[in-house]
# Entry
Amino acid sequence: MEQFDAVLLDLMLPGRGGMEVLQDIRREQPLVPVLMMTAFSSVENAVEAMKLGAFHYLPKPFKNEEVLNLVGQAIAQSRLRQENQQLRRALLERHRFERLVGKSKPMQELYRLIEQIAPSRSTVLIQGESGTGKELFAHAIHQRSGRASAPFVVVNCNSIPSELLEANLFGHTRGAFTGATTARKGLFEVADGGSIFIDEISSIRPETQAKLLRVIQEKEFMLLGSTEPIRVDVRIIAATNIDLKTLVERGDFRDDLYYRLNVIVLDLPPLRERVEDIPLLAEHFLQKCAAENGKTIERLSLTVMERLVRYPWPGNVRELENVIERAVVLCEGWMVDVDLLPEEMRSPPSSTLQPLDGPVLPEGTTLNEAVDRFERELIQATLRRTRGVQKRAAEMLGLKPTTLNEKIKRLKVTL
Ligand SMILES: Nc1ncnc2c1ncn2[C@@H]1O[C@H](COP(=O)(O)OP(=O)(O)OP(=O)(O)O)[C@@H](O)[C@H]1O
Ligand SMILES: [Mg+2]
# Structure
């Protein structure tokens, strides 16, 4: 397939149906344009072929010039799409920092901060809602430090029972406690020379907090069951999605440990506060999940993008990743459309201009801008309902077609 610029495909073939072949081509070479031809033309076939991503549908008999012309157009369009895809990839590459994707101002500031702090040995505290990328940030710090070739050890304090956490972190001698039939190295020793990422640090119980404080201050610790201190060179990166300060005030977290952790703080903004990263992240997850599932999906539809950008993302980047993964798994075509989004994200958002107790002018807009926006949204919605037929839309809106057309141009209405 790779050697072809375009394919002319008959619907009736010996052995396999043309529709099946079309699907294969779309899956393997989504950028190769396919022109379907058949004498048995029917509207359903044409619709199905177009849905599967055929470039055009030619009923037989056709004129040769017509075919030549279409082939020329198909090749030109596919070149543009190839270029477009390369540009999108390049854009994604440009807005990447280690495994992190994002170009918003807060992300750029965080990248800069990481560059500055990575080389030092200082303890870092990463705070952010669930799914904001705390672990990825911790990894980025490790990668940009001089410790990148040494281990990056992850400990999730929530997933280890608190009575076992100490034994995990510091290790133990043989017979240190019931069940300790052999000696075991702790994660601090495993991480020697590298970094240790202590996730959900808020759930560490007070005794363990005290021992952790000692490692930070003295750079040494003792195996459980031993009094021999062990010296290690480990960079500690801690994370929490609960505000530690509040815990300190309530007496649930040691203040001296808090002050030790609080030297360098990374506050990760929730996704809803950096909306401009959503398309980039969506694109990144689309490519990643498609590759993992052996699918070639070219892009997300514009409507999907619009819904993603407007959704508030309580589960942040992880939730976005899950939504895209689901869509990719369910997707059978070359583009992800709105029907593959979870139910609650499918319907268009209701106008934000009319809250319960009467319209309020959105901050930073003038009356004219707000009216324009309302008009634009109304016209856009109507045009979608009429599938772009302006004459029908004008009727529905009680406008003359020429007036509607003027408005579409002035307001730059897109479908
Ligand atoms: N900026 C980003 N670029 C690319 N992927 C990201 C980004 N932020 C988060 N992710 C991805 O989102 C998922 C959640 O990230 P991560 O586990 O780092 O979040 P977290 O803040 O540790 O969440 P939790 O508090 O729930 O553990 C991961 O699969 C991660 O790869
Ligand atoms: Mg995490």
